[in-house]
Sequence to fold (170 residues):
Amino acid sequence: MSRIWSVVVCLATLQCFADSTGAETLAPLEALRGAPKSVEVDGVVVQLKAQVWRDFMPGFLSDTATQSQESAVPGRPMIATLRVIARNGLQIPQRIRVDVAWVILGDLIWESRPSEEQPRDPAAHEVAVTMRNGPKWPPKAVVDVVVRIVDTNGATHLLASRGQKIEAAM
Fold:
């Protein structure tokens, strides 16, 4: 009986790292580093624009209340705003979505399931998503950002924006 329980726990743990298709989302670092800066998705060439920052502005919560266990550094966790933009003014098909995003600092990787926080304009030339509650990496550090795009047929494509500086709101 305990052997069966061990198998169930193991399978449940593995499922935590799988997306809705059962594919792992924890991409190898080499694959992320090799992601192209532009890719054709459903006949539209897209590129990624990224803005990554940390908030150090005084607010309602004290710095000690916003510190995570991973870091004694003051300030709030990292946020990233990502925009997949169609080149040449073409419209991005409505069914294209960003399901996973990664921010890479050296050998450190922050993986997140970004959300579309604003309704998408049907005539949009971009898909905007936001990553929240990231690590407390230092401002001015240079990171690479990679997203996984799912096209209308369910195929996935990696897309990168390299050399992004972590900004700081003071």
User: Anything to note?
Assistant: The mean pLDDT is 81.
